[in-house]
Amino acid sequence: MEREQYLAAIKPRMPEKRYIHTIGVMETAIALAQKYGEDVKKAETAAILHDIAKYADIEWMERIVRDEHLDSRLIGWGSELLHGPVGAYIAQSEFGITDEELLNAIRFHTTGRAGMSRLEKIIFVADMIEPNRRFDGVDRLRKKAQKNLDKAISACVRHTLAFLIDTKQPIYPLSIECYNDIMNREDSEG
Ligand code: GDP
Ligand code: FE
Ligand code: FE
C-alpha cells in the first residue's frame, strides 16, 4: 500500500489532533531514516500506523491480547500500554504487513525494549520529538536526534521514565528492561 492509502485508512480512526501528530511522526521518522541509513518506506509505514490502536476499545484490545497470545502482562495496564502491541496486530491482520521489523517498531513504540533495532529507535524517537510535541526538554532531545541515534534514544527513554516516576505512575517491565539495556551498553562503551 502507498502512503496516501495508509493515511486515508487511519484518518477516520482517530481525532484530528492525533492525525496531525501522526503526520509529524511520519515526517520526522523519514528524516531520521534518511540520516541513519534505514529503509525510508518502512519508517514511513511504521510511523503512519504506530498509533492506529490508540482509540480502540479497551475490552476489545484485552480480548486480542488473550486470543492472539500477546504479552499477558498487558492485561490491566490500560490503553496506553495496549495500543502498541494491538497496533502491530492490526497492521498484520488488517493491512497484511508481515515484516517483523516493521511490526516490532509499532509493537514497542511506547515502552521500547532491550535490544531495539535501528527502526524501532527511529520510531520511538520520532514519536517523542515530532514538531507538534511541546514539553520542557524537547528541544534538547531534537538536537540529540540530529547528532546520534543511540544518545537520542537514551535521552528519550530516560525522559519518559523520569516523567513516570515524577507523576507516580507504574513502569511497565519492558520499559525497565529497555532502560537497563541502554545503560549497560553505555557502560560497556565507557
Ligand atoms: P503517544 O501514543 O503518541 O501519546 O505516545 P506513546 O505511545 O509513546 O506513549 C503513550 C503514553 O504511555 C504516554 O503517556 C507515556 O508516558 C505512557 N507510558 C510509556 N511507558 C510507560 C510505562 O512504562 N508505564 C506507564 N504507566 N505508562 C507508560
Ligand atoms: Fe503511541
Ligand atoms: Fe504517537
From TrEMBL:
Keywords: Hydrolase, Iron, Metal-binding, Nucleotide-binding. Signal peptide: none annotated. GO terms for molecular function: bis(5'-nucleosyl)-tetraphosphatase (symmetrical) activity; metal ion binding; nucleotide binding. CDD domains: HDc. It catalyses: P(1),P(4)-bis(5'-adenosyl) tetraphosphate + H2O = 2 ADP + 2 H(+). Its EC number is 3.6.1.41. Residues 18-132 form the HD domain. It comes from the Bacteria. PROSITE patterns: HD. This is bis(5'-nucleosyl)-tetraphosphatase (symmetrical).
